[in-house]
Amino acid sequence: MRSRGNTSLVDLTKTNELGNSTLKFCAMKQQIKTFTALLTLLILMSFGVSIHDHKIKPIDEVVIGEQVWMTKNLNVHKFRNGDLIPQAVTDEEWNKAKEDGTAAWCYYENDSANEEEYGKLYNWYAVNDPRGIAPEGWHVPSYSEWKELAGFLGGEGVAGNSLKSESGWEDDGNGTNKSGFTGIAAGSRTEDGFSDGFNGKGNGADFWSSTSYNDYDAWYSSLSSVESTFYMYRGDKENGLSIRCIKDD
Fold first, then answer.
1. Where is the Fibrobacter succinogenes major paralogous domain (predicted)?
2. What is the pLDDT of residues 57-81, one digit of tens each?
């Protein structure tokens, strides 16, 4: 009887040791999984992959001169820290963002079918928000950075032809896209007293700069279907324009 009792105690001890070993193995396995996931994420980010909007998205880019540009319009609904950027659908919502000086975005004509090709339209307050609208490693270009781009492509009087996409522009306004920038005619949303609401899809593309002109206006760059120019203009900060990001130095 004693022999059997001793054997049972030994067996129980071995069972406990086996259980502890199993727990240690499971913990080690989980640590390996976590390390592998982090390593994979770091590798993806090193190859220009963004985790913006809580999704892993490859960023298409092109080198133009000494600058690196995105080849698509920005299409995010969250700031870099994860906070939502408010969507403004009605005129009342859009004007409220203007009055409060707060960020807002919309689809062209409030139609989500325009999102895939054209991205979103943002007011300038979204550009200037300290939470950051561009993905990590990118920023909204300044006035001088847009000027540098135009200068590399021959100057503001002719750069538009190299920046415009080869299709999608009306009035025979397609470009050569020689630069690889792929500027698309996404249109805009304006509430400036001259033209209310959405206009310009197929005819124009306007891109915000990060540079303010005064309390009411900021600089933006513009492409047109009827010209090969690429000039900078001042526009109301409340307007809804496209954003095209440039890579940090």
1. 62-247
2. 678 999 999 999 999 999 999 999 9
